[in-house]
Batch of 2 targets.
Target 1
Amino acid sequence: MTSEQRVVVIGGGLAGLRLAARLGPAAAVTVLGEESRAPYNRVLLAEVLAGRYAPDVAALPDPGPVLRRGVRAVRIDRAARRVHCDDGTAAEYDALVLATGSNPVLPPLRGLFPPGGGELPEGVHAFRTMDDCLALGAAVRPGVRAVVIGGGLLGVSAARALAARGAQVVLAQQAERLMERQLDADASALLHAHLASLGVEIHTECRVRGLATTGVPSRPSPAPPGAAHRRVVTGVELADGYRLGADLVVLACGVRPRTGLARAAGLEVRKGVVVDDRLRTGDPCVHAIGDCAEHAGRLYGLAGPALEQADALAATLGGSPTDYTGTRALTRLTLGGADRPLDLAAFGDPTPLPGDDVVRLADATRRTYRKVVLRGDRLVGGVLLGELSTVGALARTWEGDESLGAPHDMFHLLTDDGGH
Ligand SMILES: Cc1cc2nc3c(=O)[nH]c(=O)nc-3n(C[C@H](O)[C@H](O)[C@H](O)COP(=O)(O)OP(=O)(O)OC[C@H]3O[C@@H](n4cnc5c(N)ncnc54)[C@H](O)[C@@H]3O)c2cc1C
């Protein structure tokens, strides 16, 4: 990149802002960010919702005028190398970077939208943005009935946070166990017990099929004659016909990469925007990083890979071509208040294939569980719950794809004292 080269980044989230920071103040960078509030790290939203952190603790360094807040990119004109925005302005680029993140998946629930489309009912929230988090925070009070739909990382975090605020929380998980993508059955069972001890009622193999809503007169109250009614959620309907009362519903059913702009611009999109090892799309002037990017068939949806991709692309655009070859990401989560916290770390595939070696250390009294799966002399997966003192060494071995040497070394990796 020469100093005259104009870089336009669409998306002022974790990946886009890291890229801008790495390119530095001398670069001609514009970040278009549709969110109008100051930049923040969404990884910390559950802690904000739980009341553990004030919103400003989640702030990301503000890049100043480089970030055009509250401006949404609406069309990419690749022939003219120009991005059109919703405020009528356009930004010309030499290099364009898509860092548009993902959208929450809205499940096909009866009653989610009124016939013909419209707004979500009052009381129903996604959990993706600071606005979602603050709206949920404003609605939660001790004793409020909250149903969280989805038992993955997001649903578990939201349920724990709402319980910490005194809500009566029911978590409805369609799969047979919690966080089934990251945890094996034993670790899931411990997590289940921990959440239950925090007062969360958990239903697994439980499909929600609809929402119950009621119409209440629009504000101001009393509403003028003929005023429209607001739809307010009153409960969720399960597939077996059972109905749970609810004042709040959180949709935590996964995320879908935001690829609309790329698709409309004729770029290749499979699950995400397809990029090569230089994080380039089929158009050499257009790149994609973070949650919206699909590299080597993989979507990550995690902060670590988003930051690594931003760093690799910054090096390339800065004149030091750098290949991105993938990230071996570790998922980490802390659940529970200061008195009863539960730490969790998971990586790779915790379910062994025939011929794999497994080392497992479980302590039912202390509610700790540690397990690693080894194929040949390499780690292929693992879970640590309740006891994370060895996570640093394990993470280094996993992330560096290092040889473990003798089986004893693997046991050593799981213990504080080398297994003595
Ligand atoms: C509640 C929650 C908890 C999480 N916890 C963890 C965790 O513990 N560990 C972990 O690794 N990951 C976690 N994640 C995931 C992590 O936050 C994401 O992987 C990461 O933020 C991805 O960064 P990104 O920049 O690709 O996307 P984002 O951070 O989503 O940023 C994308 C930005 O682009 C903007 N944008 C999109 N389209 C346009 C447009 N057309 N014009 C202008 N702006 C646009 C969006 O508004 C958004 O601000 C969590 C996510 C959530 C929601």
Note: The longest strand covers residues 208-217.
Target 2
Amino acid sequence: MHFTDTVYRNPYWPTFPLLQITQGCTHNRCKFCTMYRNVDFRMQPMEWIEEDLQELAAIVPDAKTIQLLSANPLCMTYDKLAPIFEMINRYLPKMEYIYAATRVTDIRNKTVDQLKKLKNLGLKEISLGVESGDDWTLDRVNKGYHTEDIIEQCGKLSEAGVDFWMTFLNGVAGKEHSLDHAVHSAEIFSRCKPMLVGTGSLVLFPGTPLLEEAEQGKFDTLSEKEMLIELKTFTEHLTCDCSFITHHTVSGKNLSGPNFLQRKDKIIAALEHEIQSGDMEKLAAIRRNKRSL
Ligand code: SF4
């Protein structure tokens, strides 16, 4: 298989088989991320993709799922993506479910009809690393889009029937804008009606511009307790029925699962309990030990 440099795969989807169709990230400027800093973006050569599919066809000819890599494999136009999807179906004829994590902006260059065609070729589920539904925060961390883009592109995915996840990055707005980040994100996410909302929490990794700003006193990081308060506020304002995944922050409790609205009160109560009596030093130690997003 032609895996190159850093590749990210979503651990909640089947992690085999994987197919890398791009290298690096087209944006590569989010202030909290260094994952692809030293990787130039390029499409994986078509002959590599075909060789990888030949290899997979020999190992798992009946594969029904596949996860596309790397950071934002759907950035390509429909005309470039469709032949890759057709090739996947040719080599793995039982394919039913193609997954990909990608950027909100990657949907812009596709019409609803093109998204429907990709869905018919297997594209069933996309994860969007949205991070925030608050324009100030999106600008602050250089995400490269605004809430109107999120609403428009998620609307196209819904119309095409392609399921999507939205992720919320706890702590990324800093102290002063924490409330706006939580409330506005919940409002925008609720409006977009994703199949799943995922939450992660900010870790300032070495080499990130946001860590540099924090060291210069230009970015106020949230304490562990403030992280939990922000997550609780986000959860309180989230009104869409979806699956809900949270990790990083709440130790010892599994708050993830389907039917968010049915479980919402319990999730909020668990977060409140953690705010009141959680071991903040232990949570801080878990965060300090994280090595990647
Ligand atoms: S967070 Fe995602 S979009 Fe932003 S630079 Fe990192 S890989 Fe690219």
Note: Residues 260-277 form the longest helix (18 residues).
